[in-house]
């Protein structure tokens, strides 16, 4: 184990065991270095790593503190690693997304208000009206984010936002069949919004799961074709 890893795991243990709680200032560098048996440089690198994960907050002129450790903030840091997944890995994540989107849609149907319904259908109308794929993608994100928000679990909403942000890197609407995909997506959104407006959790869950499964199938269009078993896949080095 490297000195940086030793410092990283040492700090993580202090926080995980509750020795350092949310919002608390971490001990001075000298004390931590002596306790963990590492140099100041290794400790500072470990602090930077934990700060990137949203676990520690350096405050200029004040010191370094444990963050509030809100679940949604910690989950949000998954974007740092999820962004590295190749498309094949992202498609595996979609099995999780299908389950979670169905759950939040059912929750939204049980909790929706007239304002929620107006917001969802307004977003759908904006999506149908735009010819800009980038704007359509942003509106699509806002539509699903609104459903997750109404679902009532900020951590779950953040996790789904991380999943969606990664998949948005693949602009399926720019494919040759993009216009047809857009129309199918818009239809799916109306089915989902209608189920939520009808306060029908079962129908909403089914519509959300079907919509995510369809998106997964579209993403597979970006996968390079598989060639002969003894030959390289297209785009790979020979």
TrEMBL record:
UniProt xrefs under PROSITE patterns: HTH_GNTR
Gene3D superfamilies named in the record: GntR ligand-binding domain-like, Winged helix-like DNA-binding domain superfamily/Winged helix DNA-binding domain
UniProt keyword annotations, A-Z: DNA-binding, Transcription, Transcription regulation
InterPro entries, per database record: GntR_C, TF_FadR/GntR_C, Tscrpt_reg_HTH_GntR, WH-like_DNA-bd_sf, WH_DNA-bd_sf
Top-level taxon of the source organism: Bacteria
Short name of one Pfam family: FCD
Domain HTH gntR-type residues, every copy: 1-69
Protein name: FadR/GntR family transcriptional regulator
Naturally occurring in which organism (per UniProt): Streptomyces osmaniensis
């Amino acid at each position: 184990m490297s000195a940086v890893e030793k410092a990283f795991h040492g700090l993580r243990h202090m926080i995980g065991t509750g020795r350092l709680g949310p919002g608390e200032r971490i001990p001075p560098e000298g004390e931590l270095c002596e306790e963990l048996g590492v140099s100041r440089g290794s400790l500072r690198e470990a602090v930077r790593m934990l700060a990137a994960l949203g676990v520690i907050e350096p405050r200029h002129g004040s010191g370094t503190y444990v963050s509030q450790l809100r679940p949604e903030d910690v989950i949000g840091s998954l974007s740092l690693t999820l962004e590295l997944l190749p498309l094949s890995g992202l498609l595996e994540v979609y099995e999780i997304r299908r389950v979670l989107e169905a759950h939040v849609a059912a929750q939204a149907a049980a909790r929706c208000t007239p304002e929620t319904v107006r917001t969802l259908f307004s977003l759908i109308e904006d999506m149908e009206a735009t010819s800009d794929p980038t704007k359509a993608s942003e509106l699509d994100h806002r539509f699903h984010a609104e459903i997750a928000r109404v679902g009532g679990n900020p951590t779950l909403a953040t996790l789904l936002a991380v999943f969606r942000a990664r998949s948005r890197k693949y602009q399926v609407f720019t494919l040759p069949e993009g216009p047809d995909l857009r129309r199918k997506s818009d239809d799916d959104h109306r089915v989902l919004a209608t189920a939520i407006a009808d306060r029908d959790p079962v129908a909403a869950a089914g519509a959300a799961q079907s919509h995510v499964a369809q998106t997964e199938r579209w993403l597979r269009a970006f996968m390079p074709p598989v060639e002969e078993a003894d030959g390289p896949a297209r785009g790979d080095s020979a």
